[in-house]
Amino acid sequence: MKKMIMIPKTKIIKPKVLYYGTPVILLTTWNEDETVNISPISSSWVLGDCIVLGIGLGGKAIENLERHPECVINVPNPSLWENVEKLAPFTGKNPVPENKKENGFTYAKDKYNVSELTPIDSVSVKPSRIIECPLQIEASVRNIRIPDYSPNFAIVETQAIHIHAHNEIIIGENHIDPNKWSPLIYNFRHYFGLGNELGKTFRSET
Ligand SMILES: Cc1cc2nc3c(=O)[nH]c(=O)nc-3n(C[C@H](O)[C@H](O)[C@H](O)COP(=O)(O)O)c2cc1C
C-alpha cells in the first residue's frame, strides 16, 4: 500500500543570515608584529585533511592568512561559548573598517586577554593553539579564492598538519569519542550544544 505523507506547508523567505547550525571554530592567525589574532568563524567544512573556511574580506583573519599562510583551527566545546562571545564585538583590524564600525565592532589587539583564553605554542605553525579548546588543528593554507559572484568573502582551503586532542575525548589511539566530544553550534546567531545521540552511521568505528 502506498505510504501517505503529509506535505508540510512552506513559504519562500529572505533571511538576513543563513547560519543553519555549524560548529564554531576559533581561528588563530599570525599578525605582522608576530603576535596572534583570534577570529570566531562558523563557516567551515572538512573532508579528509582538507578544511575549507569561509572568511569575510576586510577582517584581520584574511589579511593575516594572505601574508602568512598558516593557522590553527581551534574547536571549542559548548562550555566555552561565553569566551567566544567575548570576542564577537572585536576585530584585530586597526583602524576598524567602516562596515565593521557600522556593525558595532571595535579594535582589540590582545584577543587572548579579551576572551580569557590561554595560548600554547604550536608544533609546526607560528600561530599558537588555544589550550582550552579540546581540538586544535594546525593547518597550512593551500588556496584562497574570492568567488566572482560574491566579492565579500574568501573561500580558504587549508590542509591539516597536526591534530591535537584533549586526552579526555580520545578513544583508543586515533579516534575521538563522540560521547565525550561535543562541538559548539552556531544556530542562526544563537549558541547551542548537541542534544542526545540519535544513532550512528554504518561506517562508525566507535
Ligand atoms: C560565532 C561567530 C561565528 C562567526 N562566523 C564567521 C564566519 O564564518 N566567517 C566570517 O568571516 N566571520 C564570522 N564571524 C564574524 C567574525 O568573527 C568577525 O568578522 C571578526 O571581525 C573577525 O575578527 P578579525 O577581524 O580580527 O579577524 C563570526 C562571528 C561569531 C561570533
Describe the overall structure.
This protein is mainly beta and 206 residues long. The protein has a single domain (22-187), classed as Electron Transport, Fmn-binding Protein, Chain A (Pnp Oxidase, Chain A, Roll). Helices cover 12% and strands 36% of the residues. The chain has helices spanning 60-67, 81-87, 98-102, 111-115, and strands spanning 20-23, 25-30, 36-41, 44-47, 50-56, 70-75, 90-91, 106-107, 119-120, 129-130, 135-145, 153-165, 170-171, 175-176, 185-187, 190-192. The strands form 5 sheets. A 7-stranded antiparallel beta sheet has the order 3-2-6-11-12-5-4, covered by helices on one side. It has a 3-stranded antiparallel beta sheet with strand order 1-15-16, with no helix packed on it. The chain has a two-stranded parallel sheet with strand order 7-8. A hairpin with a 2-residue loop joins strand 15 and strand 16. The longest helix has 8 residues, at 60-67. The N and C termini lie far apart (38 Å). The mean pLDDT is 96. Bound molecules: flavin mononucleotide. The site of flavin mononucleotide has 20 residues, from strand 3, strand 5 and helix 1. GO terms for molecular function: oxidoreductase activity. InterPro entries: Flavin_Rdtase-like_dom, Flavoredoxin, Split_barrel_FMN-bd. It holds the Pfam family Flavin_Reduct.
Concise overview:
Strands 3-2-6-11-12-5-4 form a seven-stranded antiparallel β-sheet, covered by helices on one side. Strands 1-15-16 form a three-stranded antiparallel β-sheet, with no helix packed on it. It has a two-stranded parallel ribbon with strand order 7-8. It contains four helices and 16 strands. It has 206 residues and is mainly beta.
